[in-house]
Write a structure and sequence with these properties.
The structure is a single chain. This protein is an alpha+beta fold. Strands 2-1-6-5-4-3 form a 6-stranded mixed beta sheet, with helices on one face. Helix content is 25%, strand content 48%. The protein has a single domain, classed as Nuclear Transport Factor 2, Chain: A (Roll), CATH 3.10.450.50.
Length: 150
Amino acid sequence: MSNPEKMSDAEVHTAITDTILNYAEYVDGGEIELWAELFCQDAVFDEGQAVTGRPAIQALLPKLLRLFTATAHHVSNIRIERTASNHAKATSYVHAWHRKLDGSDFEFWGRYVDVLAFEDDAWRFSSRKVEQFGARGLEIAVDQVPRRQP
């Protein structure tokens, strides 16, 4: 990549979109090291319980993946806001299908709330919080998406 100060907003949007989409591809492919490299060294990943630092985040994925024989994460509604030359925030929606070890399915509908930073020549997650709209097939302790009161 290049210097983030010289990147246009469109280039930043494309690069961050790639980071968000790579997250899903690497999870579904079991690419643990590539997945972990999407996070900053001191990143925070919160999927119901916050984990801090890339090594701890990398250690988390194998524990999660061994619960399933297959997964498919579908990401949409990506919104990105550049907050500084080397920082941005983003939200995206996810529908994730999981095949459990017993052959039954688990589905999750939610969103990712991200803060990204340009670190080591790439846009990476400095924090990623997973929030749920709903789930079917497994009880999970993930924060609900806040809902505006009418």
